[in-house]
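Saturday, quiet lab. Running sequence design on the structure tokens for the scaffold JK sent over.
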């Protein structure tokens, strides 16, 4: 198969972890006889520096032409006080909108070798294996009106949370389909005791559940879900949530996995005629400018994102499984970066990448 992939290293440690993810991708393609066609583009702070735009037109063109996109990270502290349209994160929102990706899948798994890396007790996190399904194109991040107006005592900010029935049903069906392939449990997260948006969300999810009688559905208020993810994470299989709640809850998964550097993600949208999903793949972590350029960042989240790409955008489940097995082998070897609290000397970003390649 020819794999036509756009690579967007982005900002900070994004360039370092993406480099290792690409090396793993090249290794898998070579071992399984696939042809790689890689293009590279600009997104985020680096794009602002070079073009004045966090999402340049050239990047948009490349993304539209690619079969899948691999992203490192976006964000730099120097833009923290810039207008919203000139922040690196606007590039991320732009590419998501262009590709029409509406579901962010974030697997959270507690690997046995990393139980000591979690601040929680081992018996609390052991056996954790869930996937958080976050709606990605609606809610308060995209709703209008939005903005800051006025000045002095009259200065006022507004953001709008809005969802349509179609948006909720679309993401719910994807979550139910995933649950059907896993342990057949789905927890839908909302704030229906306060928000009308959540009241519609709960009603539509409950109606959609009628088409999936084999899946056990529970409704969980978002504040209780945040607590249960720490108190009893093994109760969850598939967690379905709207955009902002998912953004917050999925980062809580880093506590369970031992490090935010372990978490991959897949943002997927409509299926192509071939049956493969349109996809944008990236580790959950940010650009971590404090350690950028030091070869210290954990690349396993980015490498795990390559596994997700192979499975969802190309249907290459055997190749995806090979990457996952290699990640697990490296974890068992203890050949890991400092964030995973190795018993011996911590390994560099590039050393971990090489170890994964060797394990494939």
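Result came back. Writing it out in full:
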């Amino acid at each position: 198969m020819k794999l036509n992939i756009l690579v967007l290293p982005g900002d900070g440690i994004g360039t370092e972890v993406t480099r290792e993810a690409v090396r793993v991708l090249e290794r898998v393609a070579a071992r399984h006889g696939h042809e790689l066609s890689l293009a590279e583009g600009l997104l985020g702070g680096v794009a602002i520096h070079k073009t004045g735009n966090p999402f340049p037109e050239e990047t948009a063109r490349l993304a539209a032409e690619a079969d899948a996109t691999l992203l490192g990270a976006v964000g730099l502290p120097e833009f923290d006080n810039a207008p919203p349209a000139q922040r690196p994160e606007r590039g991320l929102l732009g590419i998501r909108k262009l590709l029409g990706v509406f579901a962010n899948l974030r697997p959270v798994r507690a690997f046995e070798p990393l139980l000591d890396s979690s601040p929680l007790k081992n018996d609390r996190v052991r056996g954790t294996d869930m996937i958080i399904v976050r709606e990605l194109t609606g809610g308060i991040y995209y709703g209008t009106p939005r903005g800051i107006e006025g000045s002095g005592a009259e200065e006022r900010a507004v953001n709008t949370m809005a969802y349509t029935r179609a948006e909720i049903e679309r993401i719910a069906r994807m979550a139910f389909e995933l649950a059907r392939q896993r342990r057949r449990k789905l927890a839908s997260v909302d704030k229906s005791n306060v928000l009308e948006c959540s009241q519609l969300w709960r009603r539509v999810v409950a109606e959609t559940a009628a088409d999936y009688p084999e899946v056990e559905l529970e409704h969980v208020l978002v504040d209780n879900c945040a607590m249960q993810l720490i108190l009893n994470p093994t109760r969850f299989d598939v967690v379905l949530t709207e955009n902002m709640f998912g953004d917050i809850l999925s980062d809580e998964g880093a506590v369970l996995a031992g490090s935010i550097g372990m978490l991959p993600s897949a943002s997927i949208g409509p299926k192509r005629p071939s049956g493969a999903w349109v996809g944008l793949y990236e580790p959950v972590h940010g650009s971590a400018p404090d350690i950028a350029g030091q070869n210290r960042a954990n690349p396993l989240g980015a490498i795990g994102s390559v596994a997700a790409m192979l499975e969802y955008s190309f249907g290459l489940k055997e190749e995806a499984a090979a990457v996952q097995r290699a990640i697990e082998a490296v974890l068992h070897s203890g050949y890991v970066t400092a964030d995973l609290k190795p018993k011996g000397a911590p390994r560099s970003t590039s050393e971990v990448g090489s170890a994964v390649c060797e394990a494939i």
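Notes for JK: The domain at 1-109+258-360 is CATH 3.40.718.10 (Isopropylmalate Dehydrogenase). The first strand starts at residue 2 and ends at 10. Ask whether to fix the surface positions before the next round.
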